[in-house]
Amino acid sequence: MKARVHITLKNGVLDPQGKAIQHALGSLGFDGVDDVRQGKYIELDLSTTDKAAAEANVEEMCKKLLANMVIENYSIEIE
Amino acid sequence: MKARVHITLKNGVLDPQGKAIQHALGSLGFDGVDDVRQGKYIELDLSTTDKAAAEANVEEMCKKLLANMVIENYSIEIE
Fold first, then answer.
1. In chain B, at which residue ranges do the beta strands (DSSP E only) sit?
2. What is the complex's ipTM, to 2 decimals?
3. What is the pLDDT of residue B31?
4. Domains in chain B: ranges and CATH
5. Segment A16-50, tens digit of pLDDT
6. Residue B61 contacts by C-beta under 8 Å, 6 or more apart in sequence?
7. CB contact A49 to B (< 8 Å)
8. Do B34 and A45 count as a contact with CB atoms less than 8 A apart?
9. How far apart are CA A27 and CA A11, in angstroms?
10. Is B1 within 8 Å of chain A by CB?
11. What is the pLDDT of residues A46-64, one digit of tens each?
12. Is A39 in Cβ contact with B40 (below 8 Å)?
């Protein structure tokens, strides 16, 4: 069973990495880029076949390790 | 118009960051995690309203800046 986790900075939290990308795109001649936000994308291969258990498990992983809950949001897709 | 870009390591490319996460999850007591791969997730706010042009533009950005085509794949969603 595969879990896909997106970890993004909360709104209002400064994203220097995103700003760096935005400026770099500008200097490469890409116009019309109003904002860039960079997040993390994590793919987990889980040995369980129980979708609900997998989702609960991955949520726990996000809270304990993957995401910094003070400044980051996470979203989980299980398939 | 919003573009979401996923940048992932190609199959076969070593992912030390993913391995580190996998080991950390193991030491926290999360069993049954067979593999972890970490990628990047980039959200772009584009001022254009032409979906086809936006997609072509973002593809160009991936090739020129966002992804390292030697070791990384990218996928683009426009909405």
1. 2-9, 33-46, 72-78
2. 0.91
3. 92
4. 2-78 (3.30.1280.10)
5. 999 999 999 999 999 999 999 999 999 999 999 99
6. A25, A28, A30, B5, B44
7. no
8. yes
9. 26
10. no
11. 999 999 999 999 999 999 9
12. yes
d(CA A17, CA A57): 30
Q: Which residues of A touch B50 (CB under 8 A)?
A: none
pLDDT value at position A53?
94
Cβ A42–B18 below 8 Å, yes or no?
yes
Q: List, run by run, the mean pLDDT of 10-residue segments along chain B (79 residues).
A: 97 96 97 96 96 96 97 96
Length of chain A: 79
The set of residues, in sequence order, having a beta carbon less than 8 Å from that of B74 and lying 6+ positions away, is B5, B6, B7, B8, B62, B66, B67
pLDDT grade for A13, boundaries at 50, 70 and 90: very high
Q: What are phi and psi of A2, to 5 degrees?
A: -110, 135
Strand order in the sheet with A72-78: A72-78, A2-9, A33-46, B33-46, B2-9, B72-78
